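Researcher: Structure prediction, please.
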Amino acid sequence: MSTTISPPDVLARIVAHKQQEVAERRSLVPTTLLERSQYFNSPTLSLLGYLRRPELSGIIAEFKRRSPSKGWINEFAKVERTTLGYMQAGASALSILTDTEFFGGKNEDLATARKFNLCPILRKDFVIDEYQLLEARSIGADAVLLIASVLEPTEVRRLGLFAKDIGLEVLLEVHDREELLRTLDVAIDAVDLVGVNNRDLRDFSVNIDRSLELAQLLPARLGRVAESGLRTAADIQVLRQAGFDGFLIGETFMRNSRPEKACAALIQQLRELQAVR
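Model: Predicted structure follows.
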């Protein structure tokens, strides 16, 4: 039976578990071992660059088995088949959940996606420590997520600059105007892209108007990514017209038994919509 978590508790429980997890991993796999990975010093691919390529869809297709709010979404999906299918369908990049306790992911999922795909890969996790950034580099990630609701602005800047120093791009996730302005005021030099999460963490409701409301506040030099609640080609078209470069889509694809086919169908609809316009 899947277990879900009420909104007021979700972030606190995830962060507390992540602190314990990082301490355990550091004791088992020291940073010197991470730095010996075949990927650690290999060139990375620019997530921002791929999202701004006009011939691509701008879609960041996500591999996510479960979530705290929904429980299991697609417990038995295969990383290799799904991610290859995403890219063959026309996605611009991949997002891989690596949190195990709450999202059913693992580092091996990202390493597998890296093995079979030549595209930018975002490591989606709850980053609170530099060790996780070294870990991300060692498993083949090109970019990492930093979440404003989890980190103080000074922590975003410290972790973001560290990530960039080892060759990773940084996607800052915000939920509202206050998080956006407070964090960028301190950490704009440590961020490559800003993602607006359309999910309200108080009740898990989703509304793409969140992205539209913040669009004009996002600095032009930073990549703009809309996250959560994107279901149709029309959603993407509206957001693109508002200035967004990227569209992170997970559950819409993953709740299909063949997520890659759902991705292909949406991208085909997007192409048809663009052709009409």
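Model: The longest strand covers residues 169-174.
Researcher: Thanks, that helps.
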